[in-house]
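Checklist before submission:
- one chain only
- standard amino acids only
- sequence pasted in full

Submission:
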Amino acid sequence: MDVLKKVTLLVTATVAIVLVVGWSVHLFGFRSFISAVVVNWVVVCWIATASLILNFSLPSSYYETKSFEAGQLYERLGVRFCKKLLRRGPLRILSPKLRIPNPIVVESLRELEYEMRRAETIHVVAFIVMMFVAGYGAVRGWLDALSWMLLFNVLLNIYPMMLQRHNRMKLQRLIGSINGKAIGVSVTQHRVIGSVSGER
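Returned file contents:
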């Protein structure tokens, strides 16, 4: 994608998002739960679009698995339910490359890991942006707006972030198990990859 196309895409996405947010706030009010859904959703969409153009990422240390993440932390926090929703929900269209690779070799798994990092980064940045939006509601004393913004920020950003970290840990174990060699996928490995990508 050349520079002109990138700029055009970013400008178009920005204008579209401003119009959608303006329409929602005008029609339903900033304090409405509908506006909270719309604002959260369009922010994620805009950042996903911007990431295709700007290719931003977080420090590599952020993506490293932390000691507290071991075990069943994310399962206990409900990522399995989140996974079921994402399989059927609109957020899936933002990460079309989160699919089972074919053929299944280390190189393709590394590419999948990169896409997982990219998806997580999108939600981290969206989370930060939405905290500022929620902060605006708090400053204005709109506790209802604050509550709705925080609720949908958790649902649309925090849970997808946790899901990507959970899936990436599984993927890293699989990559370690095949030691850089292309292999056929056993039933167990297929289930691991399926759970990573959101497919059965």
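Reviewer check: Confidence is low (pLDDT under 50) at residues 182-195.
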